[in-house]
Amino acid sequence: MSLLDIRRVSKNFGSLVAVRDVSMTVESGELRAVIGPNGAGKTTFFNLISGLFRPSAGSIAFDGEDVTGVPAHRRVARGMARTFQITEIFPEISVLENVRISAEVAAGYRLRPWLGRRAAAEIRQRVEKILGLTGLVAKADRLVGELSHGDQRAAEIAMALALRPRLLLLDEPTAGMGDQETYEIAALIRRLHRDNKYTIVLIEHDMRVVFNLADRITVLDQGRLLAEGPPAAIAQNPAVQAAYLGEAA
Amino acid sequence: MRRSEILRGRLILLAIWAVLIGAPYWMPAIGGYTALGTRVLVLGLAAMSLNFLLGFTGVLSFGHAAYFGLGAYGAGLTLKLLAASTPLALLLGTLLGGIAGALLGALIVRRRGVYFAMVTIAFGQVFYFIAFRWNALTGGDDGLRGFARQPLHLGPVTIDILNNAEAFYYFVLACFAVVTAVMAFLLRSPFGHTLLAIRENERRARFLGIPVERHIWLAFTLSCFFISLAGALYAMLNNFADPRGLHYALSGDLVIMAVMGGMRSFWGPLLGAVVFVVLQDYLSSITTNWQSFIGLLFVLVVMFFPRGLLGFLQRRKAAA
Ligand SMILES: Nc1ncnc2c1ncn2[C@@H]1O[C@H](COP(=O)(O)OP(=O)(O)OP(=O)(O)O)[C@@H](O)[C@H]1O
Ligand SMILES: [Mg+2]
């Protein structure tokens, strides 16, 4: 059984069809890249998966259960975590506090008016581990809003990781980054995938990153599924080449 | 750095409580009187309750006087019609405002920003008109009279908070201490952290798995319970309750206190209440136009200290 099973979803905004009849399945442990020209519908597709929008048609199953009508915050509780193309963080509190809120909610403590010593210690450990994994230990006490763009992206990934997700959805994690930062984030994603066995779906524009990391690639174009396959096959695919050439022309 | 920050926090806390506990002794020396101090405490508590929602959940209610007023009428009516008991009046006043807040809150938590503020005003004015029109029960425009707070009986000891202004001040201070302790405690808890998350970024909060509307409703309800307790104390301070205690003009004053004092700091609204109440007391004895002066001060503070007076002081100390 696939971890994520998307069947023929569509999303209309008025007369605009942003996603048209797209299907995709993602296996546990896979790293999937979703690519496509600007405006292809990639982010909208993520919004359908994560529950920000309800699809106009089609269905989404997660871990064997239909989640098409399940609100976003419950999908998180079931194990879906995401980041956004434009960083969404809590700017006026520290990195540590950002990640801690995540960890507390993930542990089921969101309504707790207090925490016992044991629980607090477990949360602290969990937060430290994630800060270590994402390379943010030295910046734990800084306000997230004051960090560099790259570190803010890393902090957002850290928040998603603190949720103990079974599926991690990353929308252009390297957007707006220089080479060095892009390299670091790519290395982080590789570690998460290889060493920590996360299942990841990644929207990405940087083809070096995509072809280096992805097990399989899904290509969207004008809302439609254009192609899907391993990197080598996608690179050779004439329809994909045409779509990207068309964009360049 | 962290340790010195914690130490500084404790010192400030100690200073605040020393000032509050000593108030009946040092206030007369600078021309104050005890009832003025009590008024500061009550309105400060109301502003802090509002700020639980405004400063720490990021939701602006412009109709919080409604719950303050309901607390006041609840306490007054209890003393007048039910039983001559201060604790019972406090309890029933708090329950009346708190429960009304819980019910109405459920209807408005889906609105955001200006719409939320507008709906809170609208509901607030409904209570104002009920109090204004229902002469038989509330005394209408003349207000609710004919009740008085009652001495406290603690086992064999009786504390005459009715005739002894200092004793009443300390009674109010004790209530103030309990409510602010509960607020501080909640804000440090995982639940309080989710409120901060909502204030900082609602979308991110939702995608951390927080049911945002439900948490805003909880924060709104808690804040209504806190402020109606303040309202109940207010009725007992004056032995009087009137429709103006429900009016949105008072809601506006509370917002001014919170913003002027510093809505991102826990004690900011108390400082705002000190400035507001003391100025009001002083200015209203020399001019009927006192509101313009407070308005002007508010504008100046917002322009030059956007984080409020306390926010400004904290910033400067941090920089030093
Ligand atoms: N909330 C919305 N309301 C109306 N139209 C929308 C909305 N979100 C996206 N669209 C439209 O849907 C289309 C697909 O947008 P989407 O953001 O999904 O593309 P994308 O593939 O993520 O592009 P990019 O690479 O630029 O991020 C665009 O034409 C966009 O204008
Ligand atoms: Mg996009």
Question: What do you see in this structure?
Answer:
- The complex is a heterodimer of chains A (249) and B (320).
- With 249 residues, chain A is α/β, with parallel strands linked by helices.
- Chain A folds into 2 domains: 1-79 and 165-249, P-loop containing nucleotide triphosphate hydrolases (Rossmann fold, 3-Layer(aba) Sandwich); 92-163, no CATH class.
- Chain A has helices at residues 42-50, 72-78, 95-106, 117-133, 149-161, 179-194, 207-213, 231-236, 238-248; strands at residues 4-13, 16-26, 31-35, 57-62, 65-66, 80-82, 167-171, 200-203, 216-221, 224-229.
- Chain A has a 6-stranded mixed beta sheet, with helices on both faces. A 4-stranded antiparallel beta sheet of chain A has the order 2-1-4-5, with helices on one face.
- Chain A is globular, with a radius of gyration of 18 Å.
- The termini of chain A are far apart.
- Chain B is mainly alpha-helical.
- Chain B has a domain at 34-247.
- Helix content of chain B is 74%, strand content 2%.
- Chain B contains 14 helices and 2 strands, in the order H-H-H-H-H-H-E-E-H-H-H-H-H-H-H-H.
- Chain B has helices spanning 2-26, 34-54, 65-82, 86-108, 113-133, 135-138, 165-188, 190-200, 202-206, 212-238, 248-261, 268-283, 290-304, 308-319, and strands at residues 152-154, 157-159.
- The chains are: A alpha/beta (249), B mainly alpha (320).
- Chains A and B meet through helix 2 and helix 3 of A and helix 8, helix 9 and helix 10 of B.
